[in-house]
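agent> Task received from the user: take the single chain below, predict its 3D structure, and emit structure tokens. No templates, no multimer pairing.
agent> Plan: (1) validate residues, (2) run structure prediction, (3) serialize to tokens, (4) report one or two observations.
agent> Step 1 OK, no nonstandard residues flagged.
tool_call: predict_structure(input=
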Amino acid sequence: MICPNCGHDNLPGGEECSNCLQDLTQLDLPVAQNRIEGSLMADPVSLLRPRTPVTVRPTATVREAIQTMLARNLGALLIVDKDGKLLGIFSERDLLTKVAGLHDSYEELPVAQFMTRNPETVTATDTLAFAIHKMDIGGYRHLPIVSEGRPTGVISVRDMLRHITRLCKEN
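)
tool_result: status=success, residues=171
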């Protein structure tokens, strides 16, 4: 990395110039190369206009959860306590990996038995890049948006794809 102060060629990743001791950390910040990268780096999750979360209590049965998901065309439900605080998420993946074929009579079992506890979350002000990174690393298709521990919305990979597609069409 070339120091903008003295022109010295420093080793990549150095925090200061080895010649003049100029701070170089600001030079390591990523720079958007196009409209999509700019949006991902700067725009907040709220730009996706997240859906209102559909919630159930942990005592809801798996049958009730499935019926709700089917009726509302959802891939995930949020599980909340009596005060509305997020406890978990019950997704199609939970249904397939923790329920289907593993339990003969699961319909009346509580959804809390199969939900993913303490799911990863984002806030409405987190950047799209932060959210998509969490989705990628964790392999999640849905992320709850929370404020003070209470869900305020849900975003999905599909929401991200729609946004990126819209940006591509605008070019």
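agent> Step 4: summary for the user.
The chain has one domain: 45-170.
agent> Done.
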